[in-house]
Amino acid sequence: MSLKNLSARKKIPNIYNSRLSNQRVNQIFKKFEKSFKIDTNFIVAVSGGADSLALAFLTKVYALKKNLYPKYFIVDHKLRKQSTYEANKVKRILKSLKINSNVLTWKGKKPLNNIQSLARSKRYELLFSKCKTHKINNLVLGHHMDDLIENFFLRMARGSGLKGLVSLGINTQFKNINLIRPLIKFNKKDLIFLSKFIFNFNVDDPSNYNDKFNRIKVRKLIKEFENFGLNKKKFQLTIENLKESDQSIKFYVERNKSKNSIFNHKRDTLILKKNFFDNSREVIFRSLSDLIHLIGKKPNFVRGKKIENILSKIKAGKLSKVTLGGCVIKKVNHTIILTKEE
After folding, report:
1. What's residue 116's pLDDT?
2. What domains are defined for the chain?
3. What residues contact residue 35 under an 8 Å CB cut-off, 6+ apart?
4. Is the pTM of the predicted complex or chain greater than 0.85?
5. How far is CA 39 from CA 54, 70, 137, in A?
6. Residue 231 phi/psi, 5° resolution?
7. Which of 25, 18, 16 is nearest to 192 (CA)?
8. Is residue 324 within 8 Å of residue 302, measured between CB atoms?
């Protein structure tokens, strides 16, 4: 063992070193260490599932080696009678491994429809609030390879474009928070093994077996595909290839915005040159979406269908003036002008 590795091991208490001595655990941690390149403090979201418990262990060991001080939060959605009991049990389980955590509670009336989507939004809202309170810009999430593939099919079912299909990346940004998913290339089997070996516990959410949720239907569909030889590694390879294509499009989007738009900072006004629209449909679509978001200063991007409607009007020469995403968009001669809505 090198002096560097020996020094790193000395920083880690025996409660972790004893577990890292297991060959499979050590291999998983080494893979994690390569994918998790961060040198500032971070917040970890823990649900109590096998993936997030594995994440809690891996990030704790990483933090000890790097002299970092992460914070761990468990979200109690209050959607099931036993949720508070489970959240507190997860807190105790983490404490047994010297991982301090806090429970965040979703208070107020709960929805009857679109439960999973609204619960996810509330979960992020609570976690983002803690990021702001602690002035930490890094939020670490437990999404793994199965989530990546499921997200791809869910987006496909909604008719998403390329950007939407590959939206679940290892590093993304939302509301000035870095969303980091270091487990995105990890197989769920390894995470289940790690959770059982380290904690001998995980919360098994009954909604994971409820066919009324689209994600569960997609999960079963993926298993059917696997029977035809379309395994998860092939799906992952397809998604990675699409991500490369997405990166190429991003290059042309940035070039289009910088070359073919003029920004007046004092007036919060953008002028789009005629050449702005001499690009592929996808490049024009993304460029306009980004600029509406920039000028309108709304927290979320405008829905794709509304952008498409604007582009159709511009192409047909029927756009005069319209308000969208906090912007006033109007045509003046051969240019399009975006100004912030009063």
Report:
1. 77
2. 3-230 (3.40.50.620), 249-340 (no CATH)
3. 170, 182, 183, 184, 185
4. no
5. 20, 11, 12
6. -80, 175
7. 25
8. yes
pLDDT tens digits for 106-147? 988 877 777 777 888 899 999 999 999 999 999 999 999 999
| Residue linked to tokens 């806090």 | 102
Amino acid at 185: K
Structural tokens at position 318: 């029927």
Name residue, tokens 């920039």: 294
The string of pLDDT tens digits covering residues 46-96 is 988 899 999 999 999 999 999 999 999 999 998 888 889 999 999 999 999
Contact (Cβ atoms closer than 8 angstroms) between residue 136 and residue 43: yes
Task: For helices 50-66 and 83-95, give the axis angle rounded to 10 degrees.
Answer: 30
**Residue indicated by tokens 């025996």:** 14
Strand partners, 74: 46, 103
Confidence of residue 253 (pLDDT cuts 50, 70, 90): very high
Which tokens belong to 326? 């906090």
What is the chain's alpha carbon radius of gyration, rounded to the nearest angstrom? 23
* Angle separating helix axes 188-199 and 23-35, nearest 10 degrees: 120
Instruction: Report the amino acid identity of residue 35.
Output: S
Residue with tokens 């870095």: 178
Q: Residues, the chain, total?
A: 342
**Three-state secondary structure string covering the chain:** CCHHHHHHHHHCCHHHHHHHCCHHHHHHHHHHHHHCCCCCCCEEEECCCHHHHHHHHHHHHHHHHHCCCCEEEEEECCCCCCHHHHHHHHHHHHHCCCCCEEEEECCCCCCCCCHHHHHHHHHHHHHHHHHHHHCCCEEECCCCHHHHHHHHHHHHHCCCCHHHHCCCCCEEEECCEEEECCCCCCCHHHHHHHHHHHHCCCCCCHHHHCCCCHHHHHHHHHHHHHCCCCCHHHHHHHHHHHHHHHHHHHHHHHHHHHHHEEEECCCCEEEECHHHHCCCHHHHHHHHHHHHHHHHCCCCCCCHHHHHHHHHHHHHCCCCEEEECCEEEEEECCEEEEEECC
